[in-house]
Design brief:
Keywords: Hydrolase. The protein is α/β, with parallel strands linked by helices. The protein folds into 2 domains: 133 residues, Rossmann fold; 84 residues, Putative phosphatase, domain 2 (DNA polymerase, domain 1, Orthogonal Bundle), CATH 1.10.150.
């Protein structure tokens, strides 16, 4: 089906356009070398990835703070690997990670192609739960900032997706109406259900190719968005 009434397309950033997993791995490689942390990167990431995902879920649900997330995901990973890293080292690593993360600019496959396709036809926007201090830098360093008319972060609004208020503020920032807007993101709960509960249609970019229960619009590759627009 085609979304013929849509004029504004809202994208999530991490795991949707920006290759978080690859860029995150490169950032960890840099800061482990800088801080003389002796751990094999693949072994670390195998433990870290699900721990980080869980902390982000807790963060969306306001069960942990930003500081808790940044410290806890590292502390829990090192503990699970039985690697002794002091709290001071973890705090330094957490700071270095945020500083180094936007230095890497890999995008997910098909990102530039789909943005080039959509940009002349629609007004494009970002809604992200990512940390405000790095999201703009990620977009600038990866060369995609120029495609977007507005960027709404959860820290600007004070609530996170799937809370309806972040969608309300994003529409206001974009000067858009809900009936002419659509959300695209990788997280079923935060992006897709959050938008739908607000009254905005949504498309799941099924980045992890998960088995999804329910009737949702979804794509497995960015280029497949062309069937909707």
């Amino acid at each position: 089906m085609k979304f013929t009434e849509v004029q504004h397309i809202f994208f999530d950033l991490d795991h949707t356009l920006w290759d978080f997993d690859k860029n995150s791995g490169l950032a960890f490689s840099s800061i482990f070398e800088k801080n003389s942390i002796a751990v094999e990167l693949e072994v670390f990431l195998e433990k870290y990835t699900p721990i980080n995902a869980n902390y982000w879920k807790l963060y969306r649900e306001d069960k942990v703070t930003k500081a808790d997330l940044r410290y806890g995901r590292l502390k829990e990973t090192f503990d699970s690997l039985e690697i002794n890293v002091s709290d001071d080292q973890i705090d330094r690593l957490a700071i270095d990670y945020i500083e180094h993360l936007p230095n890497h600019n890999h995008l997910l496959e098909g990102t530039i192609e789909i943005l080039d396709y959509l940009h002349p036809r629609y007004k494009l926007h970002i809604i992200t739960n990512g940390f405000k201090e790095v999201q703009h830098r990620k977009m600038e360093s990866s060369g995609i900032l120029k495609y977007f008319n507005s960027i709404t972060t959860s820290e600007d609004v004070g609530v996170k997706k799937p809370h309806r208020q972040i969608f309300e503020v994003a529409l206001k920032n974009a000067a858009a109406r809900v009936e002419e807007s659509i959300m695209i993101g990788d997280n079923l709960e935060a992006d897709v259900m959050g938008a739908q509960n607000f009254g905005m249609p949504a498309i799941l970019y099924n980045y992890y190719r998960q088995e999804i229960q329910g009737d949702f619009h979804q794509v497995l590759k960015m280029k497949d968005l062309t069937k909707y627009f």
